[in-house]
Amino acid sequence: xxxxxxxxxxxxxxxxxxxxxxxxxxxxxxxxxxxxxxxxxxxxxxxxxxxxxxxxxxxxxxxxxxxxxxxx
Length: 72
Hints:
By secondary structure, the chain is mainly α. It has one domain (2-68). The protein has helices spanning 2-25, 63-68. The radius of gyration is 15 Å and the shape is flat. It starts with a helix and ends with a helix. The model has no long low-confidence stretch (mean pLDDT 85). This is Methionine aminopeptidase. One of its GO terms (molecular function) is aminopeptidase activity. Keywords: Aminopeptidase, Hydrolase, Protease. InterPro entries: HSP_DnaJ_Cys-rich_dom_sf.
């Protein structure tokens, strides 16, 4: 269990560092400020236009919108 906890702590600290970096750049951490998610599908899929928009920042790419949408 010690190894599992160490890996989880490493992942959490890595994500926290990523969020702080994106806060400084005022970009959404999930889409990296692009406003949309890219899907690397391996088969043909039908998706509407709303499927590509980042749900975390509502397609704006801004950190402030992402932060207001976070549930704590």
